[in-house]
Design goal:
The complex is a heterodimer. Chain A is α+β, with helices and mostly antiparallel strands. Helix content of chain A is 39%, strand content 17%. In chain A, helix 5 crosses helix 9 and helix 14 runs antiparallel to helix 16. The chains are: A alpha+beta, B mainly alpha.
Chain lengths: 699, 363
């Protein structure tokens, strides 16, 4: 019997021996810089990825036309050594460096950029971020119109027996013809809106230029007479033909001789639909990074694995062990290799705050981006704690299709009854910036409208009484839905408490698993929901264009025609000048700060000699349009309830140099809004060690 | 053996074939189709000739079990809310349709689930492909689970050894001298171990041995050296050790009052011989039956311990796969878990047959 026991022990011994063998291979020395990236990247394909951990790696491995300078965060020449703009700001000509190379030695050419930018817009790539670059001429048509035309005309090959597939087979035009030919004409606006929702028309016919369609989208009351229906049908048919033609033209010209193209190997030309002031912010963002064509075509799905990936950035990938580390080393072929000081970098994927913090405190990591929230009071006073307000807003959505939140007065009252200052001081405590507006503070040159919805319990009570709920009577109980997380729970409890105290209404904090909450929000099956939004570039557009009617990210059910108009015009303010005078006047008459916009418009019209002044005026007009839109959003309609801007916090070992949370911009000290820390410019001073303990020093 | 072979050769053949198929699928990536097929044939013949009937009949049963389990899992995934492509940032319908198409994910509901299930089985049987991971793009399920498996096995094996050694030593000692000081001490330890969850134990261990208050000998997180093994293995083992100690104590107390122990004592054997030769085997029976499920749990990794110590094991794929609705990863983890549970229950049954003569006839 004990012989068998011995055999068992022998088996165990063999197992351990095998284990020992797997280990001996893996002893690697510590990289120069070790940082915790906070998550395992979901993808390292610049055209398919989203998210900050992915971005940190992509910024190290790839380089776009420009990159962000560490000290100023301004775009400085990357792959492109210089560029020039046309007078109207629409045409950009980039001159590429002659010594920009891929890690396999190939030169980085303008054709690489053309191919990569085209790949981003290719519907087959299914890039979530393609829309970010739709301001490039033909890009939107290339990316979406083919699909839209199929949805409009119908897809004979759509399979399935359900209603959804039947609709797809008939197409929106087919459905519309039936609606227009219905014997029960006229058709009620309610039935029309029901048709729009059921067939997802607004998702397909995005930003229609036709006034007939826009008006039809907006009409929610009354009826459509027979001639009106025929006119709508005609307009849709016209729109379909227009999109077909645009898609055809994009197929023929996009990436060939219009939109983006390469006259020669070192010249890359980009044509924009309109002057876009934040364009150079995006040439340093990963969606515009080049990918190596031969490599991608050889392994379309997983070309970015170690051993395959060919990149062009300051670092190259050596190894990627999932859930363990990504090892990168200096790319000797990089044009600026002389300036790169780090020889090796390890990016760790730990998502647990304590794990990250333990690694940092023992000197096993030099830079971490998260730490246990309970330690905030201790950490805040340390010299290695870096914090700055970021471009992430924490807010609540109101379900504007569900009583009592259908009433703007109710939403405004709820917003005014919460003391956000107290919230950030007592609950979140990282130094977050409380806010009643949605565009991140610090977006260059932009100033949010002064908010009328600051903390004012008395006014909030009055407003609630006006709406028919004096002292909260008859308001009913409702849920604050948030995804399960301790921090969200504390905030929801605080806000529910405030509403109880100041308005005498009962809100019930209700946690829910992330995915099921997302689905519920998409169905508009909630009362109040916690959300967050990360700005992608430093411009109001990234926070405001999502609130247009039925936008996929709106999810409040709220919509406002003037708001939609403002956002649409902001994409190209010169279009205001082209409007017929009567229409322009009617539009301007509805604005709050009409003189400000008129001033910018007149400057756009005048100064024919000075193109730069005209562009500046156009940029001013644009920001003013955003300011008007934001005023509607946060003062008047309040479908959302902004709470605070997150802090970007980092613990960085003192030996790490070139890490800036606050930067100099135009002589001012501004926060590093996007929390960008290019590894290219980081230097080390001294060997790895645990961070100083002892007595903390306040900066 | 020949007698066994004559008994129900059909069942033996089916079991061996199934085993061969599994071997073929597993090895195809490493050896290529020809090498894998050759190995599979060798394994199958060896199994047919020499494997105990118990093992082969179990293998036959696992086939419908796996299929049923996969079907139920797929249907559950296609009925719970959530979607592998859903993020807080909304995706346009066209992009969503393209992504669904690329990853072969039909619409939700029973019909979609069934289509997915059939496609999955087809991929599995024809190509031996477990599908791509959706949330870890560019990696197949095999590529993410295969490197995680040895990590979890290593850690689990070590913890299991620690748990058994510590638990049995404490439990049997306590059981031999019930109500002594040693007994109370052991059981106090067991009570603490059972009550404290492993993340608390882990945090305490980290504080004492990792962060340098007062020692700081061991790395706090990561993987790759022997040092990295110690803290997570102990944190994982202690609750199990405590439970094993209690089972072993109860078993020992029971067995010491049995007739055959009295007989052994009566025929003049030394106390030492009584305990080692007769009592022990009975005493550890409850422990053995606990070890089957416990080993399956410990070897498939622990989400909490793996996250806290930054261990790249299987545990996090179980949890994150489900949370992210990463359908193929979920099914992959079902495979691993199911396979390990079946394997360990089989081992336990065999151990029982060996330890306790009374159960042998059923085998």
């Amino acid at each position: 019997v004990y012989r068998n026991l011995l055999a068992l022990l022998a088996v165990f011994a063999v197992c351990f021996l095998l284990v020992g063998l797997t280990f001996s291979r893996q002893t690697e020395e510590r990289a120069d810089l070790v940082f915790n990236n906070g998550a395992e990247p979901k993808s390292l394909d610049p055209h398919k990825m989203t998210g900050q951990p992915e971005g940190r790696i992509a910024d190290a491995l790839f380089e776009g036309l420009t990159y962000n300078d560490t000290k100023s965060l301004k775009p400085v020449p990357g792959c492109a050594e210089s560029w020039e703009t046309s007078e109207d700001g629409k045409r950009w000509t980039f001159r590429l460096r002659s010594n920009a190379r891929w890690t396999n030695g190939d030169p980085v050419t303008a054709q690489d950029f053309v191919w990569s930018w085209k790949r981003l817009q290719d519907p087959k790539t299914a890039s979530q971020y393609a829309g970010l670059m739709h301001f490039v001429r033909h890009a939107e048509a290339f990316n979406t119109y083919d699909g839209q035309v199929v949805a409009l005309r119908g897809d004979a090959e759509a399979e399935g027996d359900d209603e959804e597939s039947a609709r797809r087979r008939r197409g929106i035009l087919g459905g519309l013809r039936e609606l227009a030919g219905t014997p029960t004409r006229p058709v009620a606006a309610k039935a029309w809106q029901g048709f729009l929702d059921a067939w997802g028309v607004r998702d397909v016919v995005i930003r229609p230029p036709s006034k007939t369609i826009v008006d039809a989208f907006e009409r929610e009351e009354g009826t459509f007479s027979a001639p009106e229906l025929d006119a709508v049908l005609a307009a849709f048919e016209e729109e379909t033909r227009r999109r077909e033609a645009a898609a055809e033209s994009a197929r023929r010209h996009f990436g060939v001789d219009e939109g983006i193209f390469a006259p020669d190997a070192r010249t890359f030309v980009v044509e924009l639909n309109a002057y876009t002031p934040y364009f150079l912010d995006l040439t340093a963002f990963y969606v515009t990074f080049p990918a190596h064509r031969a490599t991608v075509e050889r392994w379309p799905r997983d070309w970015f694995k170690p051993g395959r990936i060919v990149s062009n950035g300051p670092f190259r990938m050596d190894a990627w062990t999932v859930n363990q580390r990504i090892r990168m080393s200096k790319n000797p072929l990089y044009w600026g290799a002389d300036e790169v000081r780090l020889r090796t970098i390890d990016a760790l994927p730990h998502d647990n705050d304590s794990t990250a913090f333990n690694l940092y405190m023992t000197g096993a990591a030099d830079w971490i981006t998260s730490y246990p929230p309970d330690l905030i009071d201790v950490l805040k006073t340390r010299s290695d704690y870096h914090a700055n307000p970021g471009m992430i807003v924490y807010f609540y959505r109101f379900n504007c299709t569900r009583k009592p939140f259908t009433d703007a007065r109710v939403r405004r009252a709820l917003s005014m009854a919460v003391d956000r200052d107290l919230l950030v001081q007592q609950v979140t405590r990282k130094g977050e910036v409380p806010t009643t507006t949605i565009v991140a503070h610090g977006v260059p040159r932009y100033e949010s409208p002064p908010s009328a919805l600051g903390f004012d319990p008395a006014a909030a009570r009055r407003l609630l009484a006006e709406a028919g709920y004096p002292n909260g009577r008859g308001f009913g109980r409702f849920n604050i839905s948030f995804n399960t997380q301790e921090g969200h729970k504390k905030i929801a409890e605080f806000i529910s408490q405030q509403w109880k105290t100041h308005l005498n209404i009962d809100a019930n904090p209700a946690n829910e698993e992330w995915q099921s909450l997302l689905e519920r929000v998409r169905r508009l099956d909630y009362d109040v929901q916690r959300a967050g939004w990360i700005g992608d570039y430093r411009d109001p557009n990234t926070f405001l264009d999502m609130w247009t009617t039925k936008n996929g990210n709106n999810e409040t059910g709220w919509g406002n025609a003037l708001y939609d108009r403002l956002i649409a015009l902001a994409a190209d303010p010169t279009r205001i000048l082209e409007l017929p005078e009567a229409e322009r006047d009617a539009f301007l008459a509805r604005l709050r700060e009409r003189p400000r916009l008129e001033d910018a418009l007149s400057r756009m019209r005048a100064g024919d000699g000075d193109a730069a002044a005209r562009l500046r005026a156009s940029a001013d007009a644009r920001l003013q349009l955003f300011r008007e839109a934001e005023a509607i959003l946060v003062q008047e309609a309040a479908p959302i309830f902004p709470i605070y801007f997150y802090m970007a916090t980092n613990l960085v070992h003192p030996r790490v140099e070139g890490f800036h949370s606050w930067v100099e911009e135009d002589g001012q000290r501004v926060p590093n809004l996007q929390d960008i820390h290019p590894l290219r410019d980081i230097r080390l001073n001294g060997p790895p060690s645990p961070p100083p303990r002892g007595s903390p020093t306040r900066r | 053996m020949t007698a066994a072979r004559r008994r129900k050769p059909a069942v033996r053949a089916v079991g061996a074939t199934f085993l061969a198929f599994v071997v073929f699928l597993l090895l195809r990536g490493v050896l290529g189709p020809v090498g894998a097929a050759a190995t599979a044939v060798v394994v199958a013949s060896a199994a047919f000739l020499w494997f105990p009937y118990l093992v082969l009949s179990r293998l036959v049963w696992t086939v419908p079990l796996f299929v049923l389990l996969l079907f139920v899992t797929v249907q559950m995934m296609f009925h719970v809310p959530g979607d592998p492509f859903a993020t807080e940032r909304n995706t346009s319908p066209e992009v969503l349709a393209e992504q669904r198409d690329q990853y072969g994910i039909p619409q939700k509901g029973f019909v979609g689930g069934t289509i997915f299930f059939v496609r999955y089985l087809e991929n599995l049987v024809v190509e031996g492909y477990l599908g791509p991971s959706i949330k870890s793009q560019g990696h197949s399920v095999l590529e993410v689970l295969l490197p995680a498996l040895p990590v979890s096995l290593t850690l689990g094996l070590l913890s299991l050894t620690i748990a058994c050694a510590l638990g049995l030593a404490l439990g049997i000692r306590a059981g031999l001298r019930p109500n002594s000081l040693g007994d109370s001490g052991s059981m106090a330890f067991a009570l603490v171990g059972v009550s404290l969850p492993s993340f608390v134990i882990g945090a305490l261990l980290l504080l004492v041995f990792g962060l340098g208050i007062p020692f700081g000998w061991l790395p706090v997180a990561g993987w790759g050296t022997y040092g990295h093994l110690v803290l997570p293995a102990v944190a994982l083992a202690l609750p199990y050790a405590a439970y094993i100690a209690r089972l072993a104590r109860a078993g020992t107390i029971d067995v010491m009052t049995e007739d055959f122990v009295r007989t052994a004592r009566a025929k003049g054997l030394s106390e030492r011989a009584v305990v080692w030769k007769h009592a022990l085997k009975g005493a550890i029976l409850p422990v053995v039956s606990f070890l089957g499920p416990a080993a399956a749990g410990i070897l498939t990794g622990s989400f909490v311990v793996e996250t806290l110590f930054g261990v790249p094991g299987l545990g996090r794929w179980f949890v994150n796969g489900a949370l992210n609705r990463d359908y193929y990863v979920v099914l992959g983890t079902v495979f691993v878990e199911c396979g390990i549970v079946i394997a360990f229950n089989l081992l336990v049954d065999m151990a029982y047959a060996w330890l306790d003569p009374r159960t042998r006839s059923h085998a």
